[in-house]
Specification:
The complex is a heterodimer of chains A (378) and B (223). With 378 residues, chain A is an alpha/beta fold. Chain A has helices spanning 41-48, 71-76, 93-97, 99-103, 108-121, 138-150, 168-185, 196-202, 221-226, 231-237, 241-245, 268-278, 325-333, 356-369; strands at residues 2-10, 16-25, 30-34, 56-61, 64-65, 78-82, 156-160, 188-193, 205-210, 214-219, 261-263, 283-286, 292-296, 317-319, 340-343, 350-354. Helices cover 34% and strands 22% of the residues of chain A. The longest helix of chain A is centred in the middle third of the chain and has 18 residues, at 168-185. Helix content of chain B is 78%, strand content 0%. Chain B is elongated. Classes of the chains: A alpha/beta (378), B mainly alpha (223). Bound molecules: adenosine-5'-diphosphate and magnesium ion. Chain B: Its main location: membrane.
Chain lengths: 378, 223
């Protein structure tokens, strides 16, 4: 655990970058520092590995004041990733990754072998090992940066806007990759970003800082979205925080109807009968493996033949038991039926259909939780 | 008097004669007097450059001083040192060391400043000690710029040595004076060709070592 206890940083020119910060970054979790530019995120991060020393207060790692540890020794035990990756241009990828093991005195052979493993772990091809950093794309460089930070297996990882300089598609894949790695590695991560969406996606806990280096609120993402501490936090979270909060509400409360599907091989007349008895104009057409094909309104079809060859309308799906209410709502909005199709995680067979009524109920339930459940500071 | 010797004849007749004006001796002197200053200057320029980068205020005065030195006519400087060190190679070596320092200090400063700040910061964050950061990251990354400065310094030093002939210590430059004394152009041609060849060879060696020492630069060009 990393503990900030009354930490203040005043620079030589009088700028107070961090003001009386009390905060804990729990072991094995991702704590995100988020806030507008200049609010003291980088300063806070760098005080952990003593690239900057605090003016007042203490920062401790598992109870040990970082100021009692010699800086190079401290830093070799803390991974660090920055925006431009900061790779050494004059070293090959494998040697970049092996930097800290090398500093720690591992044998060259062992350090390189380990570096090659890490290259694989962050999803890079072994052919890249002998290249120089400029020969890699920005996204690949960031992956190398992460691999390098992990090389000596430090318990703590500091990341300063590591994905801000890459394009949105690459950024998403790097974020997913980080979450995947974290699920395996359980590092204590402090992640700095100015992007609230990134904070909410990655953080187990999110600390919102305001300019002047004051902590505005620290909470789990869902709690932050449902109960921002003040106007500043609410504003920073943005307008659609209600919708975004649905990302943290499970689809368990969604009542699914099993009777709104029809096989594509069925005659139109039979489909019409089924729709009538289900009292729904819409049916989801499925293939022989129960996988969704699209929506039909049988009442609008000529009464002869089967559903094969009929023009089907677009549909949206969510994975039952895994996706959030937000995904389900999104799936419903992708179809003229206004319904979302729930599919099984394995195989993608239809499990049931979430109708507008059931979505409505689930949304009402989610809304009633706001202000009850999740504590504002926790 | 017989027929005047051709250039080639002049060269072969005066090579390895064991006399003071023997061309091989002149060449050896020329190499020592031009390259020793380069090695010495590098040893001075690196710490001076480091200090200028570390304490920014130092750079402007240092750069000014270095420029003034560079502006001094070499002949004048040789004359001054003739009074101090007499007829010895030091009379040429010391002034040439000044010139080379004047070229290399800015090269070292520019080289060190060319190291990207995020690279320096990440070296700090990974736990490099200051000395190790300097030797393993900053100086290697400054090397291409320093080596470029070294090429300029080496070639101009090789050329400037010949001016030393006017104070009696000029290596191959002696051949120009000789040509004037005997009123015949062959020695001058031998001297010019010798100096140009020497400059080309030294520059070639520096280019090759630049490639070997900084493979990432070459990879960048061809990649
Ligand atoms: N070395 C420094 N000297 C003076 N002021 C600084 C220095 N570094 C940062 N600051 C100031 O401290 C504040 C916080 O900076 P920083 O921690 O970099 O913010 P962030 O990472 O959130 O953008 C800013 O106002 C910045 O201008
Ligand atoms: Mg910053």
């Amino acid at each position: 655990m990393i503990t900030f206890d009354g930490v203040t940083k005043r620079y030589a020119d009088g700028t107070v970058a961090v003001d009386d910060l009390h905060l804990e970054a729990p072991t094995g979790e991702i704590t995100v520092f988020v806030g507008p530019s200049g609010c003291g995120k980088t300063t806070s991060l760098r005080m952990i590995n003593r690239m900057i020393d605090a003016t007042h207060g203490t920062i401790s790692l598992d109870g040990v004041d970082v100021r009692t540890i010699d800086p190079p020794t401290l830093r070799r035990g803390i991974g660090y990733v920055i925006q431009q990756a900061g790779l050494f241009p004059h070293r090959t990828i494998v040697d970049n990754i092996a930097t800290v093991p090398h500093l720690l005195g591992w044998s060259r052979k062992k350090a390189r072998a380990h570096a090659l493993e890490l290259l694989d772990r962050v999803g890079l091809a072994p052919e890249l090992a002998g290249r120089y950093p400029f020969q890699l794309s920005g996204g690949q460089q960031q992956r190398v940066g992460v691999a390098r930070a992990l090389a000596a297996d430090p318990p703590v990882l500091l990341m300063d806007e590591p994905f801000s300089a890459v394009d949105p598609v690459v950024r998403t894949s790097l974020q997913d990759e980080l979450l995947r790695l974290q699920a395996e590695l359980n590092k204590t991560i402090v992640f700095v970003t100015h992007d609230i969406d990134e904070a909410i996606k990655l953080g187990d806990r999110v600390a919102v800082l305001r300019v002047g280096g004051r902590l505005a609120q620290v909470a789990a993402p869902a709690a932050l979205l449902s109960a921002p501490a003040d106007e500043f936090v609410a504003e920073f979270l943005g307008r659609d925080r209600g919708i975004r909060r649905l990302s943290f509400v499970s689809d368990a409360s969604l009542r699914l109807r099993p009777d709104l599907t029809v096989p594509a091989s069925s005659p139109v007349s039979e489909a019409a009968g089924r729709a009538a008895s289900a009292q729904s104009p819409w049916l989801a057409v499925v293939d022989a493996g129960d996988r969704p094909l699209g929506w039909v309104n049988p009442a609008e079809l000529p009464r002869d033949g089967t559903l094969e060859g009929v023009r089907l309308l677009p549909y949206g799906t969510f994975v039952h038991g895994r996706d959030s209410l937000r995904t389900a709502l999104d799936a419903a909005l992708l179809s003229p039926s206004g319904c979302a199709i729930a599919v099984a995680e394995d195989g993608g067979a239809v499990v049931g259909v979430a109708t507008r009524e059931s979505l409505d109920e689930a949304l009402a339930l989610a809304a009633s939780d706001v202000g009850n459940g999740d504590p504002a500071n926790g | 008097m017989g027929e005047e010797p051709s250039i080639w004849e002049y060269f072969t007749r005066n090579w390895s004669t064991g006399q003071p004006g023997s061309i091989d001796t002149l060449l050896g002197d020329h190499i020592v007097m031009s390259l020793l200053p380069i090695v010495a200057a590098l040893a001075f320029a690196i710490p001076i450059g480091l200090a200028c980068v570390r304490w920014r205020l130092l750079y402007q005065p240092t750069a000014g001083l270095v420029n003034i030195i560079y502006a001094l006519p070499s002949l004048a400087l040789f004359g001054v040192f003739l009074a101090v060190t007499g007829l010895s190679q030091a009379t040429v070596i010391i002034p040439l060391t000044f010139y080379a320092v004047a070229v290399l200090v800015p090269a070292v400063v520019d080289g060190l400043r060319s190291v990207p700040e995020h690279v320096r910061q990440s070296a700090v964050a990974m736990g490099f000690t200051p000395l190790r950061r300097l030797t393993r990251v900053e100086l290697p990354l400054a090397a291409p710029v320093v080596l470029a400065g070294l090429r300029v310094a080496a070639v101009s030093s090789i050329s400037l040595v010949s001016v030393g002939a006017l104070v009696g210590m000029g290596g191959l430059g002696y051949l120009f004076i000789r040509a004037w004394q005997i009123d015949y152009f062959a020695p001058a041609i031998v001297g010019i060709v010798g100096i140009v060849l020497l400059a080309l060879i030294v520059d070639g060696i520096l280019v090759v070592s630049q490639r070997l020492l900084t493979p990432w630069v070459r990879a960048r060009r061809s990649g």
